[in-house]
Amino acid sequence: ASSFPLASLDTPWAQLREAANAARAAFAAPALAAFDSPRPALLELRDKLQCMLDILKETKEQVPLHNCETLNLLRERYKDTLGELQLGESTRSFLKIDKLLDHLEYDATYNREALPAEACEILDTVVPLCEALCDAQNALDVAWRAGEGGQDDKGVPFLHKLRWDLRVASGADLFEEKTHKAKHDHLYGEDGGKPCLRTRLYFTHNSHLQNLLIALSRPRDRRKDG
Predict the structure, then answer these.
(1) How far apart (Å, rounded) are the C-alpha atoms in residues 147 and 218?
(2) For residue 226, what are the contacts with CB-CB under 8 A and spacing of at least 6?
């Protein structure tokens, strides 16, 4: 899927905020106030995380981590993600920053008690910074897709999934989607002829919900959709 085409990591935040404000997708990011552009913020994030990994390398595991994970596996998670993103080296590191935030929020929520105090201090510093970068990226992405350069259809697949679940739950006609219902009944049974009871727990990012709201709020040209 397309994302906001950031030309350079050295683009000033003032210029990026102006682009977001033009589409009413402004982002407030106090954590970014100390940085002139995305690059120094990403490099600061990289250096802090590398310091945390160095601390964890010398840490002996005393308290079990969540879901039976080990400190070695935790370190590998961050090493792989940092290696993939190359923070501060390419625009991809800004466009895909939400991958890193997933790890940070997970460990801040589930593994804090198992981490040494020094690592927790770093975690408390980098989470707000990473969140601010994600908020900025999401706002710019929304602003770009709302204009002529992007397409506002990224929320449509999620919308189709919601529609299908609601139709099955209500017993409504599934039209061309009946084949999927047959597959579901084959897997889970038809419960003695009674309507199939379905529950759904959706895991998604804030940006995905923004995409869904954009898809709902902007009329689509059926001729273009085919």
Answers:
(1) 12
(2) none
Do 142 and 210 contact (CB within 8 A), yes or no? yes
Mean predicted confidence (pLDDT) in 135-144: 84
Q: Which residues contact 122 (CB under 8 A, 6 or more apart)?
A: 48, 49, 51, 52, 55
Annotate 58-125 with DSSP letters as a single string.
TPPP-SPPGGG--HHHHHHHHHHHHHHH-TTTSTHHHHTTHHHHHHHHHHHHHSGGGS-HHHHHHHHH
Rounded to the nearest 5 degrees, what angle is found at the Cα of 123, between the Cα atoms of 76 and 142? 90
- Phi, psi values for residue 75, rounded to 5°: -60, -40
Residue 118 in this model has a pLDDT that exceeds 60:
yes
Q: Contact 8/36 with Cβ under 8 angstroms?
A: no
Q: What residue has token string 């770093």?
A: 122
